[in-house]
Amino acid sequence: MTRFPDLPDATVLADPEALEPYRRDESHVQGDLPLAVVWPKGPAALKELVRLAKAEGFGLVPRGAGTGKAGGCVPMGEHAVVVDFSAWRGELLLSPQDLCLSAPASAPLREVKATAAAGGLFYPPDPNSWESCALGGTLATNAGGPNACKYGMTRHWVLSVDAVLEDGEVHTFGIHSVKANAGPALGQLLIGSEGIFGFIVGATLRLTPLPREHATLLLPAKRWEDLLDLPGRLCGAGYLPSAFEFFDPAVLAELRAHGPDEARRLPGEALAILEFDDRGCTFGPFLEGLMDLLGPMAESLEIASDARQRAGIWAVRRMTSAFLKERHPKKVSEDIVVPRSRLREFFAGLERLAIPSVTYGHLGDGNLHVNLLGAGEADPAELDQQLMDLFRLALSLGGTLSGEHGIGLSKREAFLSLSDPGQIRALRALKQALDPHGIFNPGKVL
Ligand code: 2HG
Ligand code: ZN
């Protein structure tokens, strides 16, 4: 192919200089220069693109807003075309009676959440990029976020998905109801697949009534290790926080020394942010019981008394990733998970391994962002070894190597070598069956 052809109902960009930004997302990996970037606006363009890809032997790499953390949307090899879904047509359609919202992959997640909220409804997935990411990317990667602690991941909030498969047609998997049991849930196979079986172009999302109350607490611990048992203790006592975030002493010290004003005021040696959204959570027996439980371990306890204070607390948590990245541009940030009952063992293991790292993240569901700040200066072989040790530690405790960012390019080798061989065989068989020409996001995950 000498020149990338024009396509019906699509914009095409093939100028090599303009293609440069499409080699990256927000992870530390860099892909290859794509042949072109295509913005399909509807199914006709996608159908033609799939036909061309099969005929000409190039791969298609899906891209939402490029905010992924694992390199899932960066091209690999010389024959890849980026399919940017930001121009995909479609409207947001709220159906309060069915407690659902239909939206195209191009919809900004911010708008999805706002549209639901305007109707008094809640769409819980809240990855850190929620103000800039696209719905399609969150579906392809099964995004998480702080609210996963209580509400689960993106896949728990999808009733149906529309996806283009290898025949070039868009198919719908699922119906507008939580009860749908006619055969296996194939749509679930596409969610979190990072586009290796086909591309999601839209979805109908499940909603729930919008919580009206929030108790947001800052909990600096007298001894930071005590925080590690707290997620399990809270659940044991019948409390399920809608978010339970955490900064270890090193991250907190860095935030306090170099962060914005709100961060400089943060108390304690290590800090948890807890949020509850149960009805009646801001007063009476709920709060009293909670105080009894938290009081003995807390150096102090601050409850956000209004929306502004709550927003201030979250602003610090939300900027932590970008803040650390700015201070340590070559850092590598990981995303392991262990069951919440094994957090103490995980931190003991991390100390034994002596991996130079700092940690923050979603303590309440055991999803921790272990950051190797000095990764840029480290010997690459040693760094690889450290990451493998970290993953093995998580796995040995019944956890996994990614909680919410996915495999993409960055964790592909580790995923292949550490997963159950039966799982990899099954995934390869599915890939072969659903994408026999290997056009959908080649080189990712598998
Ligand atoms: C977060 O929880 C995001 O802030 C980003 O998942 C994590 O950059 C990171 O390590
Ligand atoms: Zn996170």
From TrEMBL:
Ranges for domain FAD-binding PCMH-type: 30-210
Transmembrane segments: none
Annotated Pfam families: FAD-oxidase_C, FAD_binding_4
Superkingdom of source: Bacteria
Protein name: Lactate dehydrogenase
Keywords: FAD, Flavoprotein, Oxidoreductase
Cofactor: FAD
Alphabetical list of PROSITE patterns matching this protein: FAD_PCMH
